[in-house]
Structure formats: C-alpha cells, structure tokens
C-alpha cells in the first residue's frame, strides 16, 4: 500500500493546477447583461435555496399537526350516540328503542328489569347498559365522552387515551384510564366499581382512588372513594378495611385485614393487588398506624430505589407515585401497548 | 495554453474608480485581469463542466460590475470578487442538487467525464481536487489560484481563519492520500508541467 504524499509535495502540485482560458466571447455576454435591466431577484422565489432547518421544521410541524388532527378527529365525541337494544324494550325519552336509534345529549336511556341496550361510545368503545338502569348522555368537551349513571349497571370496554370517557354517578366520578370495567349504582346511590382491565380513577371532591384490574372499590353518597380491594377479600377483613378507612380502626383491624390479604409467599400479581390496597390505606390511616401499614406493604413488595421509609411516612407524593408504578408494572405495559394501538389506528385512518 | 497562477498586485486606483463609475474600459481591464482565474475556479469547482463554468464566470462579473459603486476603496477587489465567485459556485451547486432532487436535471448539465490521461500527474491532481467536498474544494482553489492568505479566504468564505486552516489541512491530508501513487513515479513533483485545459 503506497504511503501518503509529503505535504510539501501536495502543495507543490496544487500550485501547478492548470489555469484554463476563459472564452473571449464571455465579455460580449457580460456587456449584454449589463445593458439589460437588472433583475429584482437573482432567482425566482421557488428556486431560492430553502435552509434545511426550515424544511425539517416544516416537516416536523406538518407531521405533528397532522397527527394531532388525526387523533382529535378519531376521538371526537359525537353529539348523539348509536344505541341498539340487546334484550327487551329499552326506551329513550319514553319511546321504545329500535335498532339504529341514537341517544342525544340531554336524553335518558332507561331499561326495565328485562331489557338491556348497548351504546357505542364514539369510536373508542362500547357501554352495555344493564337491566333497571337510567343513563343520561351529558354534554362533554371536544373529545370527552360523558354519561351519567343514575342507577343500574354499565359494562364498559374502552380503548382510547386516558380520560376520554367519564361516568358520573350520584356518589362519584369514574374516569377511564384505558380499560374495561363494570360500574353499578344501587337504589341508595352507592357505586361499586369492578375493573377487569387497565385502570379507573374514582374521584369525589379532592379524594381519589386509583383502581387497577382485578380490584373493586365502593363509594357511598357523600363518602369518599373507597380503598380498592380484591373481590375475594373475606367479609371480616372488608369490614376491618372500612373501619380503618373511616379512621375508627386500630391495630387489631389491621391484623384482620392483613390476614385477608395475600401474603409475601404468594404470586407476585396477587401480592401487588394487595399492595395497591395497602398503598391507598397508607394515605388514609392516622400517623400511628402508618408505620405498621408501611411495614406490611414493604413485606409484600420492596420499596423501589429512591423511595425511603421516611418519605413514605411523610406521604411525599413523588415517592408514593414511584412505589405505585412499581407495584403495577403489568398495567404500565398495558399503557404502552395502548400507544402502539393508537399509532396503528392513526396509520390506518391516514391511509384510508 | 495554461499559465502558472501567480499572485498579482492589485489593480490601479484609476481602474477601480473607473469601474465604480461604470467605465467599460475599466471593466474590461478588471475582466482581463481575473477572467481566467475566475473561470478556472468555477471549472474545477463544477467538476469540469465548461458551460456551467462560463455561466458562473459571466454571472460573477455582471454582479461585480453592477455592485461596483458600493465597493469600498479600503477593501481588496480580489477578496470581494472571490467572495462573489464562492457564492456563485455554491449557488450553482445548490441549484444542481435541487434539480437532481426533483429528477429533472437536463442532460447538458450533468458533469461530463473528461478524457483523462491515466498517468498525467496534472490530470491526477485535477481529478483529486474535484473529488474533494465542496467546502474543502473551494478553499483549495482560492488558496492556490490566487495565493490568497488564510484571512482573505476566510473573508471570501465567510468563516474564520481557523476554519480555513482546518479545511486546508483536511484537504491536504486527503490529497496526500489520494495522490500517493505519484510518490512512486515521482511524476510532477519537481516543479510539474502546466497542462492547459482549453
């Protein structure tokens, strides 16, 4: 392989670059051009070089705008929802429902003991209205799909970004965080939520419960959203949980509840479900019971890095959230897969 | 017939003043002084495309003469002129890229493949220079066609003298590598022949 040339030789060669003679006719062309009027622009506007950063910014802006436009268009809440009878004779505004009818904003959909109906929640899912139910279609925002469930049962399946589907009951506001759930309201207005996939947020005033798949939560009229718990929790443990939530429980109630929860030796999914119960309870008991609740929770699932006992006992929100996320990796994955589904839908919508 | 590029003294003040006034004889004097070097730079920069190099040369002088009234007396005409040459060459390159991008480059402005003598060191050097990236190429052409200093090249390119030094250094390294075969033959390393291209 030949070595490189000496730099001095390179310079010597470059100094001998041949000079080419410019054609003499150039002068005539220059004179002609000088005699003609000077153009106002050297190049037509469209042929002027456009800076690359400007092109890149324009492309990014177009993609973002197009994507947002597509997302908003896809998730726009319709003013009237398609509703079909499943069994019996549901009614809208007192008139018997027929296939293809729509429930308009401000109207009531009512089922009797023998009837059921299915609502199409825009393009984001479905809500089956069970027997003996009264459902009202509320006016929402641009993308918010809102119902009121006065009594009865709703079985909901939603596939959409969080917070696009909301159900108001006499006792609580249930906000979909990307999930499937059943929401029941009894004659006293008490709500009972059972989540089967994803998450649901229950909110009343400033009080919030985050209910993941597999757990249930109850809310009485005038009360605050209940602590989520597994439906198989024994009745005595459930009663103990209610006393602890209400601030009337003691260490014995905590023992009773712990006996009903899943133990450290059980499957991780079950332990995490019980962990979510204790995570909520931690924030609802008095300072004297917070330490033993923390201890039970730490036995079920080690606090993640950066989460300290002192921080949790002081109820520091960032640490609590970090631990909650650590308790629910399965649900986080569900959230990720939602983005994948959304991207795919956006693409399908764009090409169609 | 080719000539060895040699730095020349600046033009007389009278010629510059005449040029500013639009005097055709003064313009002609400026044209005669610089036309071959401007044309050569354009020709090498545009990889031997004669027609495009002629267009660029004509465009450069038209711009120079039109803008001459605004030319500052304290500046060197050559520095100013080479800045215009640089911009015209880069504009032409951008125009070609756009045409290539949209697929409508007419056959006439595709770079022509010059008939090269394989062992001619001048041709080897010329080809090696033409293979440099545009930024390095223009720096080399300005440096060796009119013996501009780093500061003058920096003014022409609108960069710092350090950037010019860096580009020339990179260009030298690339050329030293690509012209390594001349080392074994010794061709053209003792002063070189000066082949004319036209």
Considering the chains and any ligands shown, give keywords for the structure.
heterodimer, A: 352 residues, alpha+beta, 16-stranded mixed beta sheet, 10 helices, B: 198 residues, mainly alpha, 64% helix, 0% strand, globular, disordered C terminus
Topology (elements, then pairings):
The complex is a heterodimer of chains A (about 350) and B (about 200).
Chain A: H1 7-15, H2 26-35, H3 52-75, E1 80-87, E2 91-92, E3 95-96, E4 101-104, E5 108-110, E6 116-121, E7 125-129, E8 134-138, E9 145-158, E10 165-168, E11 173-176, E12 180-185, E13 191-197, E14 199-204, E15 207-212, E16 216-219, H4 235-246, H5 251-260, H6 268-282, H7 287-300, H8 309-313, H9 317-327, H10 329-351
Parallel strand pairs in A: 9-10
Antiparallel strand pairs in A: 1-4, 1-6, 2-3, 2-5, 5-8, 6-7, 7-9, 8-9, 9-12, 10-11, 11-14, 12-13, 13-16, 14-15
Chain B: H1 13-21, H2 24-45, H3 50-67, H4 77-101, H5 121-130, H6 134-145, H7 150-157, H8 161-178, H9 181-185
- The assigned structural class of chain A equals alpha+beta
If you average the pLDDT of chain A, what whole number results?
A: 86
Low-pLDDT runs of 5+ residues of chain B are: 1-7, 101-119, 190-198
Radius of gyration of chain A: 33 Å
How confident overall, as mean pLDDT of chain B?
76
Order of helices and strands of chain B: HHHHHHHHH
Give an overview of the whole structure.
The complex is a heterodimer of chains A (352) and B (198). Chain A has 352 residues and is an alpha+beta fold. Chain A is 38% helix and 24% strand. Chain A contains 10 helices and 16 strands. Chain A has a 16-stranded mixed β-sheet that branches. In chain A, helix 3 (52-75) crosses helix 10 and helix 6 (268-282) packs antiparallel against helix 7. Chain A is flat. Chain A starts with 6 loop residues before the first helix and ends with a helix. Chain B starts with 12 loop residues before the first helix and ends in a 13-residue tail after the last helix. Classes of the chains: A alpha+beta (352), B mainly alpha (198).
